[in-house]
Each structure stands twice: as structure tokens, then as C-alpha cells.
Amino acid sequence: MRVLGVDPGLTRCGLGVVDGGKGRAVRCVAVDVVRTPADADLSRRLLGISDEVERWLDKYKPAAVAVERVFAQHNVRTAMGTAQAGGVVALAAARRGLPVVFHTPSEVKAAVTGSGRADKAQVTGMVMRLLNLEVKPSPADAADALALAICHLWREPMRQRLAEAEARAAEIARVHKARLAAATKAKAKQTGPKKNTGAAR
Question: Considering the entire predicted model, what is its pTM?
Fold first, then answer.
């Protein structure tokens, strides 16, 4: 399975394509960072990100797109820009019918390093080790994009199995409830209404 990982941002948007093999084997296909000038109009910056993401989707043809989820930022302006960039990426993927999954930073860190509190240096180091990279992806946004793709490759099968198990459990519960209701109704018919045997006053 091939996944495009995206670490969204207006100034720097990390892109990383990773192929997943048997077990937990992963291979780096491509990695880069899209940059847009801070003094440019917001719409032009988003268009620049969109155009590059579209080009990557056409060139590398991933089966899914993994995007970092924005859940906490002290800088509201930065959070807004990150969310807007992530929305552009999700839209481009949706146009191609590709599944888009948002992963939190802690989920990505835990998947790649084993700790949801790992710092950027630890994430980059593990990404290099897992993908057998001799050169460190730079800036950190590039390494984060690769980490997102790895996280998705490793977490998504488990998430799908969990969703399938939950769906089966819900179906079993529904069938059991229906059978119980039918049995209760049948018993009520067999018993019939109770006769009033008390003396009339």
C-alpha cells in the first residue's frame, strides 16, 4: 500500500510518500517540502499548496492520504493556517476518491517511536532508521510527513479490524435484541390475557 503523508502548514507543508510491504516493512518513495511566501495573499498560498499536492497525487498515485490533525495550538493564526492547508489537501484527495485519515501528533509519535511524547529529533531519527535513510529529511516538516505515512500504514489495518469487530458486535447485539423481543411477544400470545376470577361486588 502506498500512502502520502502530509504535515500541513502555510509556510512549509511537508510531503512524504511511503510504500508499505509485508509486516512492518516500509520504503521511502519521495519526500519534499512545499514552501509559500509569508507575505503572499492567503488564497495564492493555498493555491500553491493545492497545485503541488495535486501534482504529487498524479505522479505517485497513493492509495490513501494521511494528514496531521490540528488539535492544540497556542498561536491561533498558525493553527488556522495549518487547518486551512490540511483542508486543501483533503479536498484534493477527495476529488480522486482517496481515503483521507487525520492522525494526531501523539499518535504519530507513538507509532514511530513508541512514545507519544517523543521530540522531533527522536521522530526524525526513527524515521531515518525505519526507512534506511542516509540523509536526514530536512526541515522537520519533511520527516514529519514521512512519519505520518508510516503511522497510517501501521495503524490503519488495526483500526479497520477494530471497526469490523465493532460492526460485528453491533450486528450480533441487534439480532439478539430482535430475537428476545420476538420471544417475549410469542410468550405473551401463548399466555393470553389473564381472566378475572375475583367475585363481583
Answer: 0.80
